[in-house]
């Protein structure tokens, strides 16, 4: 280093020591309050071409919210929801961060932003008792997509209860323009009861330590990005997902079924990989993925550690409407039956756990909905409409007129030619290993839905059909 430079360094160092307040660099112009959004929304891109002073106000709050249908959880949050608010700033910005802890909180909280260079990522400077506010300031030195989280002891517990979110530091030159941006964050929950066990579920420290997650979800609950809550876009558009992993423990194998990521900003940094099927997102890390929508469809977001998707909740949807491109994807063009020698009904499912019988019709229906969405939905489709030529409809199905036959189909399986609403099906439905209670629930649910006859099936009905054996 040149002597002159070295002296200058010493000199600035000395001035900095004397200064009582952090010196604002002279390239900071103006001041603004950050727009914060709840997932899956993302604040608008930053258009200014200079660094500014950004004021961020974030509130920690402990709230009871839905984790899954019939399951509640007391979440600890940044901004009242899980994941926490999305924060968007620009490289070089000077951020004045205000952390407010709601007076109703039972615990102190703080924030460690991975975008911060400094002690604890801001944790020390932001430790805040209930009903208090803390202020600290930092300079956004490095662009990228960063996780933030609470780091108050016991740290694992604060994170496990939902205290994480994303902060994007846009590079000086900005990000390339896209048509839509979404905020998706994966995380796990550890509850006293198993997946789906109803009621307000307390946190299980034992399961968290053993890394045995009951729920793995996108955006804080099972189904938060499914059905009416799905993300929506149109063909021809370019989509960017800001994806985070709050953990606390698991690494995500993030994948979108039926899409290839044209670009992945690996680990939320500057390195861009292209043509990626599945990208790894570490706990406490992120990725930015981009793809163009070439054809229509419902594209399913999953953690490709696949039991997490189909058994623990890690499913999201991007619904794409517009112009189908049959060259890009034809859809099914032909369907035939393939039954190799010895093709017999196989049993799927696991031994049913002990369960509490439904006391009301409502309980039976909500239990049935759960079974439908985990065991039947894949074949009979979300609205019971089935798939022409493959899976018969359950919606307005005339096969359901005979209750015993319907029960038998579910518990014993069904194969060979049948007619449903005048159409022939000749296929195999695997026997569903369900308790009498679960079979009664799912059948009652089916009878209650989609214009069906609202019959009620009881565990005793199922028991009787089981006792009569397969006909
Ligand atoms: Cu906390």
Question: What can you tell me about this protein's structure?
Answer:
With 471 residues, the protein is α/β, with parallel strands linked by helices. The protein has 3 domains: 29-172, Immunoglobulin-like, CATH 2.60.40.420; 179-319, Immunoglobulin-like; 359-466, Cytochrome c-like domain (Cytochrome Bc1 Complex, Chain D, domain 2, Orthogonal Bundle), CATH 1.10.760. 18% of the residues lie in helices and 33% in strands. Strands 1, 2, 3, 5, 7 and 11 form a 6-stranded mixed beta sheet that branches. It has a 6-stranded mixed beta sheet with strand order 12-10-14-19-16-17. Strands 13-21-20-15-18 form a 5-stranded mixed beta sheet. The radius of gyration is 27 Å and the shape is globular. The chain binds copper (II) ion. Residues 76, 109, 150, 152, 158, 163 line the site of copper (II) ion. Keywords: Copper, Heme, Iron, Membrane, Metal-binding, Oxidoreductase, Repeat, Signal, Transmembrane. Homotrimer. It comes from Bdellovibrio bacteriovorus (strain ATCC 15356 / DSM 50701 / NCIMB 9529 / HD100).
Helix fraction?
A: 10-25%
CATH class (first level) name of the largest domain: Mainly Beta
The name of the CATH superfamily of the largest domain reads Cupredoxins -  blue copper proteins
The hetero molecules present are: copper (II) ion
SS element count, helices: 8
Low-pLDDT segments: 1-20
CATH structural architecture of the largest domain: Sandwich
Give the overall pLDDT as a whole number.
Answer: 90
């Amino acid at each position: 280093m040149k002597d002159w430079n070295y002296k200058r360094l010493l000199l600035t160092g000395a001035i900095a020591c004397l200064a009582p307040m952090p010196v604002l660099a002279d390239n900071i112009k103006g001041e603004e309050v950050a727009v914060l959004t709840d997932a899956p929304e993302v604040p608008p891109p930053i258009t200014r071409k200079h660094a500014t002073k950004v004021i961020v106000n974030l509130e920690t709050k402990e709230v009871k919210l839905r984790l899954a249908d019939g399951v509640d959880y007391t979440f600890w949050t940044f901004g009242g929801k899980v994941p926490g608010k999305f924060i968007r700033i620009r490289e070089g910005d000077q951020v004045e961060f205000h952390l407010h802890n709601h007076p109703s909180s039972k615990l102190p909280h703080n924030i460690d932003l991975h975008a911060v260079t400094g002690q604890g990522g801001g944790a020390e400077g932001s430790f805040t008792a209930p009903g208090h506010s803390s202020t600290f300031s930092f300079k956004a030195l490095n662009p990228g997509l960063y996780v933030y989280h609470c780091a108050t002891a016991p740290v694992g517990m604060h994170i496990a209860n939902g205290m994480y979110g994303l902060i994007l530091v846009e590079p000086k030159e900005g990000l390339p323009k896209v048509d839509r941006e979404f905020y998706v964050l994966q995380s796990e929950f550890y509850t006293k009861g198993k997946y789906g066990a109803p009621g307000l579920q307390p946190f299980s420290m034992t399961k968290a330590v053993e890394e045995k997650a009951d729920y793995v979800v996108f955006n804080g609950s099972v189904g938060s990005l499914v059905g009416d809550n799905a993300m929506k876009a149109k063909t021809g558009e370019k989509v960017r997902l800001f994806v985070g992993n709050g953990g606390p423990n698991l690494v995500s194998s993030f994948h979108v079924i039926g899409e290839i990521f044209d670009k992945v900003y690996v680990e939320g940094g500057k390195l861009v990989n292209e043509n990626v099927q599945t990208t790894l997102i570490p706990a406490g890390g992120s990725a930015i993925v981009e793809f163009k929508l070439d054809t229509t469809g419902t594209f399913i977001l999953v953690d490709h550690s696949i039991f997490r998707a189909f058994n623990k909740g890690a499913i999201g949807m991007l619904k794409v409407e517009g112009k189908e491109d049959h060259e890009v994807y034809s859809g099914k063009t032909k369907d035939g039956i393939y039954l190799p020698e010895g093709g017999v009904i196989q049993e799927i499912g696991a031994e049913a756990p002990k369960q509490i019988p439904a006391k009301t019709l409502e309980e039976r229906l909500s239990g049935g909905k759960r079974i439908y969405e985990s065991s039947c939905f894949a074949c009979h489709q979300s609205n019971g409409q089935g798939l022409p030529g493959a899976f018969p409809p359950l919606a307005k199905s005339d096969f359901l007129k005979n209750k015993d036959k319907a029960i038998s189909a579910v518990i014993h399986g069904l194969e060979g030619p049948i007619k449903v609403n005048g159409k022939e099906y000749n296929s195999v439905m695997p026997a569903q290993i369900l308790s009498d209670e679960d079979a009664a629930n799912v059948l009652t649910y089916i009878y209650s839905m989609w214009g069906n006859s609202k019959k009620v099936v009881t565990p005793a009905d199922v028991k009787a059909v089981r006792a009569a054996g397969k006909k």
